[in-house]
Please model this.
Amino acid sequence: MTNLVSKLRQSTAAAVLAVTAASFAGDAFAKDLTITVWAGGTNDSDVYRLDAIEMAADILTREYAILGEELNITVEKKRDFADWGAFKQAVTLAAESGDAPNIVVTSHLDIAPWSQAGLIVPVEDYVDMDTWPLNNIYDNLLEITSYNGVVYGLPQDAESRPFFFWKDTMKKIGYTDEEIDALPAKVESGDYTLANVLEDAKKAVDMELVEEGYGFYPRVSNGPDYAQFYQSFGGELLDKESGKLLLDKQAMTDFYQFFVDAVDAKVTRKNHIGTEWDQWYAEVASGKAATWHGGTWHYARYTGKEGLDDFFGNIQFTLIPAGNENGRANTITQPLAYLLTAQDNEDDVEIAAQLIKIASEPRINTLHAIKSAHLGIAKEQSNIELYANDRWAAEATERLLGQANAQPNHTDYGQFSQIMFKGLETAWTGTKTPAEAVAEVEAEMKATLGDEVIIR
Amino acid sequence: MRRAHLLGLGFLSPALVIIVMLFLVPVLLTVMFSFTNMSTATGISGGAYEINSASLRKLADAGAQESFLDALGQEAFVVDDAGITAVAAAYGEQFANEIGSQMLGERFTSRRDLERAFRKLKSRPRSTRDIKKAADLFKRSVLNVRFETADGLVGAVTGNGIAMTPDQQELLTRTIYTGWSWTTDNFALMTQIPYIWRVAGNTVMYVVLTLSVSVGLGLFLAITTFYLPSLPAASFRAIWFLPRILPNVIFVLMWKWLAWDTGFISSFLANFGVAPRNWMLDTDIHAWVFIVLINGMVGASLGMILFGSAIKAIPQPMLYASEVDGASRWQQIRYIILPQLRWPIMFICAYSTLSLMTSFEYILLSTDGGPGGATEVWSLMAFHTALDNYAGNLQYGLGAAMALVLVIVGILASLVYLRIFNFNDLVAKPRIEQ
Model:
């Protein structure tokens, strides 16, 4: 019996020794690590947000091998989140419990609150911003992914949010081909405004070219798109001088009133918010709506899943028209960014940083840009045939990006935009008049944002 | 006796564990959170001290002197002997000597400029990260550095030659702390949120309407199936039990299919020339009808089972006797069945009020509080505030305070119910054994 026990002890000790030796030996020669990447708002056409990291891992492994180090990176990808809210909840709570993914693909708007909370670390602490491909990224995009003068993230894509017209319907209400071609310029100069949108949409409904509620067919859920209409009526989101958020009551009232007018004119449905996205995409891509607004990436959806063969023959796109003389034609760009989360192990953060740097390679980013109909991040992309030969990327960049502005990076902007949208919803659905809704917005902003918002 | 006590305690322990873990701990945490200003930006696990342009702005708002702010906001990398010594220790004499001979006394206003200068040196480290770390050894300012403790920050500030009065020091550490702090503001804030009363009203309406439907329908089903032959009765009960056993998401998805613009109701009514619409979200009233029906059906199935078994417990001879007396079905229900269902009905009412008040999953899945916040109930508001919204600005503190209101209302309601039920009577010793 004792014999057996001692033998068992010996063999256990031997095993322990062997395992320890093996793991030490492993440490010296090979480094295995798992990098997790989570991407929000990512559909089938956006998979290169994640796949780019895998491609980068392959390149980085080869670079290490040349330097004589064995690096094995397993990339774990995750994008199946119900919506942006669910994604941000998942990232925040995972990070709070010390379980954050290494790399997050999210809106630049998250940089302010997440950096204050210490959930993310500045990318500029880990990579040399002067080297390729980072020195080729557009400066204005890098500015959008910076906060307090520190570069926190690398732009992952750019986009903007145009206004769309269904050409056939426009022709039937009296537009000639030349007039339709001239629309983008007329919108940009302020000659064609949201008032004209209502007029034309009403004509389309009255002539029964589209059903009631389909004259102007907006986005179905909260998003930066609605801040565009606030800007159309002269609203500014940030007071540049003080760095505080700005509530312009007049602009906000006019903006709410526009949607109420659209409902009253029966060109927009009162219960539009909450429509299913799938239904919405199918309808706008088949000409069921006369006018609507969306994002540059919708091109991929319309021409892909929805089967719209001739985009340019059927759809005209412009900036979001000005609302009145106070405002301007505009569009908002909301670049997504690769962010690095804080980790216990600095080496992992460094590897993750190198991965997002390689993933920003123009060639790799172009795969994403063209597959998902987003706009590029780097100057050299216009020298890559896949990008340069894409009509959508070229035209959308030229027509929209010059006029695009981003929403402000401010810790409280999320709340600001949430309150603004809630106010819009109560006015739109008729629960409150626009003036009452704005009064509610003002009261809530005063209470929750305090000094961080200027009310005008 | 003693052993019996222990045994009792043993049997009770799983329940105790559950009560402590699933009720007491969450409630205590809710209480704790509700007295903080925790949010995504402050984080949960604690904060740090960081001087950056955002926090300098806050300091200016708080009344700090301009000269003090200027000193704090100055970014400086100075190539001095102390830095060179540190570089020598970390990255070798050669690199340090090269810096000393070529750059001593130079001053840079950003790390990037210093990195660029380093990259021109032959003996520099070949890793980007080491260059950055070497550059940090020359940092002579506190801008954009994250300090875990107030002492660390104060030490660094004074170490960089910025003098502070105790008042300034207090102002600095208080204003630029990034974490959460204790506060009672959430409760005041709640009263200032304009839509809060509408949400409270919605909650009352939701509880009352849903309860009426679930009790009414439950009773109706229990009584009608009682008078049916046993096989059809059992089949009906099984069918009506489906809402409860179906996964929530699937149950609600089926309602959505029914109500969409392109769904069943719209397609069917299109035959009669009715324009398709989203029947669930068309108006506030539509939304409410769906919310009440969806929740009512789930509640009705529980009522049906409970009331059904209570009816079975009514001594059959009473019913026979009433039939001999010539009582109609309605009279049987009115004078025999309903009076004997008093306790089950009250129980369902009490139980359902409490559970409805805190349940929001079916609303979340169907209307998500829309249209325009018309069906937003209190618990859903707390969830949206604390844990789920488009912008990802989770306000744990305010959301917890909202949830705490529900906890308090729930406890008060329970006390009232205990009183109505006369709990002591219910748990009194059975007379037959006395």
Confidence is low (pLDDT under 50) at residues 16-28 of chain A.
